[in-house]
Write a structure and sequence with these properties.
heterotrimer; A alpha+beta; B alpha/beta; C alpha+beta; A: alpha+beta; Ubiquitin-like (UB roll); 2 domains; four-stranded antiparallel beta sheet; 8 helices; globular; B: 25 helices
């Protein structure tokens, strides 16, 4: 175990923990956008900046920095706060229409940005380029249907050639993980449409009620995990009804 | 043949000596990219054809770069029994005359720059004919000490035999046959060598960390992604002396316990890619790469990776991502590559010049190297001295020389006698230092304290006609375009700094903009993920620190003191000086100049883009820049 | 562990080498070739596409028969590289990244060709021209046009 202090308060965390995890373990709040406990640290949004004053002085992104014995972490000293505030102010200027960013900024007392507004063609920008969608699709799902395209200010996320992706399995993890709701996905009939990725996948039909539920390309999971074969047989609602029926039948035959 | 032992090296050496110092007439033409850019290929062809036509027995060699680029194309004439003479600024026509003279047994005086002394077989009595100075007495060379560039321009870079003849591969034989990996690391540690890529981390320490790190396999990478605009020493070494880098990389591999090395070469350097590829193939053929080198049981191979035009790939974690097969996106450090690098394995990344130095340290010893330069700044560094300076070229000097020694001594001062105002070191990661700081001795620490960095060695001289605000905007335009876009400060911050600087050079800036610029610059410097972002503000911060008056002239008086910023100047033709030659009219890209032949011309301010082309071409200086 | 099993990563540098090979053969990266290459290297298409859009060396548009790179490195910039660019823009009638209508020339800028001591420089195909003044440009262009007839 590693002992450190966060804002003067002692915390003990397992070795291999990041400073961010230690900060949160100490009950101190820090905003993050590109961090997710299920994915490798990425260090891109630079919101979780903290100052460590021991064993050496440094301004670091806490999400990607490992704890050390005797480390002293300060989250509210001016150096850390300024770094966070400027990042928020710039993200606000990038995505002025994002409620998430506006709220996050407001929490730190920032309501307007001095750094201008996005150009008209990107006025409704919600993507902060945190990369969670790209990483979850690649690292957790393994589909790698989307990636970063271009670099610098031109950087964005998309499918190759901005057309229907053959690799997308329609799982929706990207939309689920996106912190700002930038990814538009909807189910229409037997289709799941991932508008942002110009991609449509077919949904499996429930043999009982005819409703559409899981995306067809995800059927590979049946082979990987035979124990979930049953999940494919019925939609969640029908499965629930079946379970309820089974329970009632069971109660009827063997009362408590 | 295969090299198995030191005696096999001797065979190669003898072969190399026979072409390095042949008993017949030998002419070497500097044909690295600099030479080629100024017509060396035509010179080479003319020499070959004229010699053939005259039946002159001649050994004609394409060699690398001697560093004195200002004088390219350079032709080195070695006539047995005579002084070895270096001819400068050669043309195809003069090359033909040279052959005619040589055919008569004469060494012409025209274009002769200096006599090249030969270390191996000094000709009897080095009394230069016609009062020619020795090469190492020229002001450009007098204070130089060549370690990294030891072979550049002196050997045929395609012949390993000549590399061996000048001491090459002795170091590799020594470490593989006589030293343990730890003893090899100790030697490099003891030399005090620091990474020549710019950050100056002690090379031996990096090797030690990687050597001690758990995990197999390990990798060594030569970083030849020299992206700093204004710097080209790595290109020169790769083009002119590729085996020195290959030998250094092999030694590094042995020291840390790696069997696989990579050389990552910048895409914009096609000749370097070609030379290194050829050299690796030849080393493999000779068994200097491959299985059990020198029958020592040590296996090592090298893969060449050609970059694809991304400055950020010079950053070591981005370079690793690029080799692994994706975009060159930096990763947070720690973990450092020495413990977790390529595919998560311990990896050493060294710059081209660092690796080219290693064989010399092994051969001459740590103490010998440590005695060169100053304390904590041992050895030599190579600078590319370019921009508004009289003598441009590659310069290798011991650390500790002053900027003035460099710019005024070696560089010969400003171009066309103009006053030098500043020097920019370290490329887009560095800063602009004013002339009043030119007495600073060059070291990693002094340059950093002054607000610049050593960097990989770019040294761009700026004179009174250079606008420092425009220069800052230029660099931010560069980093903005080269930012990978991963982290918020670098992506959004460089874009915004560029926006402010554009406002200022367009005369739309306010004094408040300067404060905002500084605030954003400090944030980008401290909060960015990788070295690119962390150093991107340096050109802004250093110019704000040393040339604030220029910024103020732009934002307060709406004036560009250097007469560069287009929105703040006007160009007019002085009618009393204009001879009506029409040259400006012909060259004006905007078609803004009109006038009859032999009568004063006029510039239409509506059409004029203030590119100053007319100012450059006017033979009588009739164009006035109204600031 | 990702849900979908990942193939082993390609050999070091293999991906860039493949993109260079396609680019050299076609002068740009045609979509079909890229899809094919992803299969061949056994990497996700998105990875290859991402790299292809990241690097300046690759283009998705067909190129002219000759590519002109105007160097805008620091030394070239302060010694007038921009003027060369402007002259080429007006002479050829294209902006950087564009190709002339007759497909003879593609005009590009580059951040440094490493020929700083010869600044300003341009590179046409593989040939570097140093110590350049704008008035030499027409002759250089003519040379490449001449090679075609």
């Amino acid at each position: 175990m590693i002992n450190l202090t966060v804002n003067g308060q002692p915390v003990t965390v397992p070795d291999g923990t990041t400073v961010l995890q230690a900060v949160r373990a100490a009950g101190v709040e820090l905003p993050t956008l590109c961090y997710h406990e299920g994915l490798a640290p990425y260090g891109a949004c630079r919101l979780c900046m903290v100052v460590i004053t021991a064993p050496r002085h440094a301004l670091v992104a806490s999400c990607a920095y490992p704890v050390e014995e005797g480390m002293v972490v300060e989250t509210n000293v001016p150096e850390a706060a300024t770094a966070r505030h400027l990042a928020l102010e710039f993200l606000l200027s990038r995505c002025p229409q994002s409620d998430v960013i506006r709220e996050m900024a407001a929490k730190e007392g920032i309501t307007t940005s001095r750094f201008g507004a996005p150009p008209p063609e990107r006025a409704d920008e919600l993507c902060v380029l945190c990369g969670l969608c790209v990483r979850v699709c690649r690292e957790a799902i393994g589909a790698a249907a989307i990636s970063f395209i271009g670099r610098g200010m031109e950087r964005r996320v998309g499918t190759p050639f901005d057309v229907q992706s053959d690799a997308c399995i329609g799982c929706g993890a990207c939309a689920e993980i996106c912190p700002t709701g930038a990814i538009k996905m909807e189910d229409q009939g037997n289709k799941r449409i991932l508008h942002t990725w110009h991609t449509t996948v077919e949904l499996h039909t429930c043999p009982q009620c005819g409703r559409f539920f899981v995306p067809e390309p995800m059927s590979f999971l049946k082979e990987m995990f035979p124990e979930i074969e049953d999940l494919w047989a019925l939609c969640p609602e029908c499965r629930q009804q079946r379970a309820a029926r089974q329970w009632i039948e069971q109660r009827a035959t063997s009362p408590v | 043949m295969k090299v198995h032992s030191r005696s096999d090296l001797e065979t190669l050496r003898a072969d190399g000596l026979s072409t390095l110092y042949p008993s017949r007439l030998k002419i070497s033409v500097g044909m690295a990219t600099c030479g080629l850019a100024t017509g060396a290929a035509a010179v080479y062809d003319a020499l070959r054809d004229e010699a053939a036509a005259r039946g002159l027995d001649l050994m004609l060699i394409a060699t690398g770069c001697l560093g004195y680029c200002q004088q390219e194309p350079l032709v080195d004439v070695r006539m047995p029994g005579r002084d070895r003479v270096l001819y400068a600024r050669m043309t195809a026509d003069r090359a033909r005359e040279l052959i005619a003279d040589l055919a008569r047994g004469e060494l012409p005086a025209e274009g002769a720059l200096a006599v090249i002394p030969e270390e191996k077989e000094p000709p009897a009595g080095l009394e230069p004919a016609g009062g020619l100075p020795l090469l190492n007495e020229l002001p450009f060379y007098a204070r130089q000490r060549k370690i990294i560039l030891r072979n550049c321009g002196l050997i045929d870079p395609t012949r390993v035999e000549e590399y061996v003849a000048r001491g090459g591969y002795q170091a590799l034989a020594h470490v593989l046959l006589d030293l343990t990996p730890q003893e090899t690391i100790d030697e490099v540690l003891g030399s005090g060598l620091r990474g020549r890529g710019g950050a100056g981390f002690p090379t031996g320490r990096k090797w030690q960390i990687c050597h001690d790190a758990p995990g197999q396999p390990k990798y060594v990478i030569c970083n030849g992604d020299e992206g700093d605009p204004g710097a080209y020493m790595d290109r020169t070494v790769l083009e002119s002396d590729p085996y020195s880098v290959i030998e250094g990389l092999t030694i590094a591999g042995y020291a840390i316990g790696a069997r696989q090395g990579y050389i990552y070469v910048r895409d914009e350097y096609p000749l370097a890619v070609e030379r290194v590829t050829q050299a690796v193939a030849r080393a493999e053929e000779l068994g200097l790469l491959g299985d059990s080198i020198f029958d020592s049981g040590f296996d090592f191979s090298i893969t060449i990776v050609r970059g694809a035009g991304a400055f950020v790939c010079g950053e070591e974690t981005a370079l690793i991502s690029s080799i692994e097969g994706g975009l060159g996106e930096p990763r947070p450090r720690p973990p450092f590559p020495a413990t977790s690098g390529l595919w998560g394995k311990p990896t050493v990344i060294n710059n081209v010049k660092t690796l080219a130095t290693v064989p010399v340290i092994i051969s001459e010893g740590a103490d010998w190297y440590a005695a060169i330069g100053t304390e904590n700044n041992a050895g030599t560094v190579v600078f590319s001295l370019v921009g508004k300076v009289a003598n441009t070229g590659l310069v290798e000097v011991p650390l500790g020389l002053t900027l003035r020694d460099m710019i005024e001594g070696i560089g010969g001062g400003g171009l066309n006698g103009k006053a030098v105002k500043a020097v920019q070191t370290g490329g887009p990661s560095g800063g602009c230092l004013p002339a009043r700081l030119f007495d600073l001795p060059i070291s990693y620490e002094t340059l950093t304290q002054a607000g610049s960095i050593m960097g990989s060695g770019g040294m761009v001289v700026m004179d009174e006609d250079t606008c420092m605000v425009d220069v800052a905007r230029y660099f931010l335009g560069f980093t903005m375009a080269e930012s990978c876009g991963k982290c918020t400060p670098c992506r959004e911050g460089t874009r915004y700094m560029h926006e402010i600087l554009t406002r200022i050079v367009e005369g739309k800036g306010t004094p408040e903009d300067l404060d905002l610029l500084e605030e954003v610059a400090r944030w980008v410097k401290t909060a960015s993920l990788c070295g690119l972002g962390q150093t991107a503000p340096n050109p802004v911060l250093s110019t704000l620190r040393y040339f604030r008056d220029e910024y103020e002239a732009h934002v307060v008086e709406k004036r560009c003191p250097a007469g560069v910023c287009r929105a703040l100047i006007r160009l007019v033709i002085q009618p009393d000086l204009c001879t009506g030659c029409g040259l400006c009219k012909r060259e004006c890209p905007a078609g803004a100049i009109s006038g009859e032949k032999k009568k004063p011309h006029v510039i239409d301010p509506e059409l004029c883009t203030r590119c100053r082309m007319c100012y450059d071409v006017c033979p009588v200086g009739a164009i006035e820049i109204v600031k | 562990m990702p849900l979908i099993a990942q193939p082993p990563p390609p050999a070091g540098g293999a991906l860039l080498a493949k993109l260079h090979a396609i680019n050299a053969e076609h002068g740009y990266l045609p979509e079909e070739e890229l899809r094919h290459a992803a299969d061949e290297l056994n990497v996700p298409l998105s990875q290859l596409y991402s790299a292809a859009t990241f690097y300046a060396a690759f283009s998705f548009k067909p190129r002219g028969r000759h590519t002109i790179h105007v160097c805008l490195g620091t030394a070239c910039y302060i010694r007038g590289g921009e003027k060369l660019l402007e002259k080429l823009e007006t002479t050829l009638g294209v902006k950087p990244g564009e190709t002339t209508d007759d497909r003879a020339f593609t005009l590009e800028t580059v951040h440094c060709l490493g020929s700083c001591s010869m600044s300003p420089v341009i590179r046409v195909n593989g040939d570097t021209y140093g110590r350049l003044k704008a008035d030499r440009l027409p002759r250089i262009l003519k040379k490449y046009r001449g090679q075609e007839t």
